[in-house]
Write a structure and sequence with these properties.
By secondary structure, the chain is of the alpha/beta class. The protein is about 40% helix and about 15% strand. It has helices spanning about 40-45, 50-60, 75, 100-105, 125-140, 155-170, 185-190, 205-215, 230-235, 235-245, 260-275, 295-300, 325-335, 345-355, 365-380, 400-410, 430-459; strands at about 5-10, 15-20, 35-40, 95-100, 110-115, 150, 170-175, 195-200, 220, 250-255, 285-290, 340-345, 390-395. A six-stranded mixed β-sheet has the order 4-5-13-10-11-12, with helices on both faces. A four-stranded parallel β-sheet has the order 8-7-6-9. Helix 5 (about 125-140) runs parallel beside helix 6 (about 155-170).
Length: about 450
């Protein structure tokens, strides 16, 4: 079948179209952002049941490129791309973790965590980068002069861009805010051979510079204002439904920074709804760090006005963004999905991450923001006990090992580290070891009893 897609301006009164293999990031007529639009009439010629069967048969198969969690949906992502130009690391298909014990603490029987950090570079950014770099490879194969691909990043985007460009043999350029990313995040693009520029500014400053750079040179822009990224990231919601036996959760909580992931989540659900694959929409909750909360402030005034903020330092460094590029797309998504925006303080996000870790997870601070938002909404009764809730974990906790160690050592200024767990230092004496273990086991049992009582009260 003749599946097709194109860039289209998000402004309804404009609607200008562009080829997906054209180097364009904003509408040349009105200046608005673009989005990828699919020929849904052609897609509807295949029934919803057939699409489900097709996706179930492809995922994690060895048939190139359909084993990928993104490319198993190729017809709904970028159908015109030639298979030989797909650059894939077998991304997606990350596990949907049943957070049974943590859910019970909150009085929720159906709490799941989508582990997007269980990916090649350790974050959900792989889902979008596979699409963007594949398109660049196709354009270069068609003779377009694109010497390199560039992004501004607080860590995860740069890692994904560097890895996928390295696999494709395409030079990558990364602009990072100096001393504002973890060592683990800095070493990833360095290891993959990217040209790394460490600038004396914040993410918003890096973003301004990379936009100016890509406007004046042939260098291709890889940030989320490039709507190709959204096509890969929209598969998160589609994959959640597939892993839930094609049932839609009641509420999905997602961390929000530059806000491309918010619109991507909604885009996947709207497409499935249009094709008859789902019958309802989830409520989408966007969680922001209190130190970088422009969307939260706008939501509080009913989106009547938006003012960028000067983002303050936050442990959730990947969402330390005061002027999100995809604000308008995110607002549209929230309005379509009965959306809520909640914020978390530094202590709330650190404690929520550590508390959930104690039930078997290993969370990044951005997931901590989402978990803290869920805790607050659950305490206020906004999220009810009988709901099926999914929290999207955006990155692997190992990227933030130094930060997590500092939490347990009680070395993070202004945070009491309520859930700190420190090694017990002892001489190598069996008697002293046995006494210490006895006390520790008793304390653990008391804590578990208190946890059970709290869980009962929450229910």
């Amino acid at each position: 079948m003749a599946y097709s897609s194109w860039f289209q301006c998000i402004e309804p009164s404009c609607g200008e179209r562009y080829d997906v293999f054209e180097v364009v990031y904003r509408c040349r007529k009105c200046g608005e952002l673009l989005e990828v639009v699919h020929d849904e009439a052609e897609l509807r010629k295949t029934s919803a049941a057939e699409w489900k069967t097709r996706f179930d048969s492809r995922i994690r198969s060895n048939e190139w490129p359909f084993g990928s969690g993104v490319w198993c949906r190729k017809e709904m992502v970028l159908p015109q791309l030639r298979d030989e130009n797909v650059v894939s690391m077998f991304e997606g298909a990350s596990n949907l973790l049943w957070a049974e014990r943590f859910g019970k603490q909150l009085g929720l029987d159906e709490l799941w965590v989508k582990q997007c950090g269980n990916s090649h570079t350790g974050s959900f950014k792989d889902l979008g980068m596979t699409v963007l770099v594949s398109v660049v490879k196709e354009m270069r194969a068609r003779g377009k002069d694109i010497p390199a691909v560039a992004c501004a990043s607080t860590g995860d985007t740069s890692a994904a861009l560097a890895a996928y460009c390295a696999a494709a043999g395409i030079p990558a350029i990364v602009l990072l805010p100096r001393n504002k990313v973890s060592l683990a995040q800095l070493v990833q693009p360095i290891s993959n051979g990217a040209i790394v520029l460490s600038l004396d500014t914040d993410f918003d400053g890096c973003m301004r510079t990379v936009q100016e750079l890509t406007e004046r040179e042939n260098i291709y822009l890889a940030n989320s204002m490039n709507s190709l990224r959204i096509e890969g990231q929209k598969t998160v919601g589609m994959e959640i439904v597939q892993q839930s036996d094609w049932k839609v959760p009641d509420t999905i909580v997602i961390p929000g920074g530059n806000l491309g992931n918010v619109s991507a989540l909604g885009k996947g659900f709207l497409l499935m709804e249009s094709l008859g694959m789902v019958k309802k929409r989830p409520r989408i909750v966007v969680a922001q760090a209190e130190n970088a909360n422009p969307l939260y402030l706008a939501w509080r005034n009913g989106f009547r006005s938006f003012e960028p903020v000067q983002a303050k330092t936050t442990l959730a460094s990947a969402i330390q963004i005061g002027n999100p590029v995809s604000y308008r797309k995110a607002v549209r998504t929230l309005q379509e999905f009965d959306g809520i925006v909640e914020q978390a303080s530094e202590e709330e996000l650190a404690d929520a991450s550590a508390r959930a870790d104690r039930t078997g997870m290993f969370n990044c601070p951005h997931t901590g923001v989402a978990l803290a938002a869920l805790i607050k909404l659950r305490e206020r009764g906004v999220v009810r006990s009988g709901e099926h809730v999914v929290v999207i974990s955006t990155a692997h906790g190992l990227k933030f090992a130094d930060q997590k160690a500092a939490y347990h050592q009680k070395k993070i200024e202004g945070i009491a580290s309520r859930y700190a767990n420190q090694p017990i230092e002892l001489p190598n004496d069996l008697g002293k070891v046995r006494d210490a273990l006895r006390r520790a086991i008793e304390e653990t049992a008391e804590a578990r009893e208190a946890e059970s009582r709290a869980a009962g009260a929450a229910s």
